[in-house]
């Protein structure tokens, strides 16, 4: 059997909900367990919710907490769901401080509540990358992976790309 | 940019369609391009349809054709969509004959026409595995990967598992 | 409050399920309650399952049973879910024998398991027609309604149309 | 064939879109034609977009414009898609001024972009009610219909109900 994977939830588009009364988006509980079920996942994934926020609202204290959780986690394989707007910032902090674990950050453009087809695709790829890439910190989006020290979000195109 | 990935289509549940008039399932064109779009895929994937059949109807000649296509394909990274019923048979033939390319076979339990949530999840994981695993032949299902020489389908449970 | 509506289930495409293991379609339990919930229905609907079959397999005895159930039902408003292939036959039997109740037969081209967008649309229209049409027996499909004595299924086009 | 139905679009939840980049909801084009296709609608529906706004932003001038459009419309059967927050206000204005046409206002709790199962259900019921109710102005929601002069939105419950 493959190693267990720790899945840390921080919020982001994955888990945005739609409030039918107010017509607004908000956070409640994570949908990642449901998404793993929809994907018929059979990897031993331990889901832990660290926070439920938009990554634009994530501050240094939040990131330090994520770093601390990754450090003390007994698992060597970690996937983190994260808003895409500051995903590269969190990846950089983790990459500069953790080198003995494989950590993959991933996100979604479409909330689970609206089908989140890209979320299922990204979740499947993130789980695969964490099981097959060497120790290090990566961002997995759009079927691709990037190392923490060579990625930026192209905000105009809404996608991630290498620096060089 | 990552290497291009060749995606060979052979049919299977991924591409089963629903005939509204007759209420039966059938094959027409592949939906894999649509699924890659839904997943916001940005990997350079070359889709080639080899056949559109249920893997229970796949015979030795079909498998030899798949082997021949994998051999002469100029790409080193190959993903094959395949019905799950005989996926291990095709994987064995490829594994015994090709050692210098990374080939990942994947499938779905739910047709695209019905949402195919597991298809998107498996497609994302297959694309990730083919980019990150060493040369060899693998089956990617349920978030896991198996080497061609240590996998079987547990027909009662409807899942794949190691032989040992 | 509007009158209660009796909803008789006979099967048909509405309730076809997909067997993930075998890749075949079959009947289990009705999904009409789920569909009413998805539609946020607030009409008092009493769901009763009479049978779960493809309407091509419905015989005279089955139709007599449906007629008997409609007769003895204490409600004046009745909706019947029915396969489209012989819907007109059942409608004729009911129309020739019941004149003091409003009975609307409806069906779907797409099973609930695959989204059944037309099922939700037809269910909404059938519930509306049964509340607003005078006593009589009708078929409600594709947003339209037809009286039992002036309708036939155009099998080539897969739709219902007037005889004259 | 049934009479043609004029479908006036004013916006509301039906047509809210999700901006993947900004993660916000906005209006672009109407999805009602797509929804009619999904429902396999065969009624002759003429779609006309009058405005694309949240009904909380609808002012007296907007309502007078809707009234004017309903008056000069050559059709006797009119369906209006409308945000639910002020649907009763528009219905009252129309009801006090138009008595020779059947006008049905309807809305959705879930945007088309997120599946809008209730939208398809409501659209089906609105089209059915407009074809079968006598001249007058109605609100069709949750499978029910209400006359313009005996309806209010219960904002706590998020549903419509009779005044008396």
Largest protein-protein interface: A-B, 35 and 35 residues
- As residue ranges, the low-confidence spans of chain A are none
Whole-Å distance between the termini of chain A? 38 Å
Structural class of chain A: alpha/beta
Number of strands of chain A: 10
What's the shape of chain A? globular
Strand content of chain A: 25-35%
**What is the N-to-C order of secondary-structure elements of chain A (H for helix, E for strand)?**
EEEHEHEHEHEEEE
The whole-number mean of residue pLDDT values of chain A reads 94
Q: Helix count of chain A, per DSSP?
A: 4
Tell me the radius of gyration of chain A: 15 Å
Major sheet summary line of chain A: 6 strands, mixed
Assembly of the depicted chains:
homotetramer
Helix content of chain A: 25-40%
Strand order of the largest sheet of chain A: 4-1-5-6-7-8
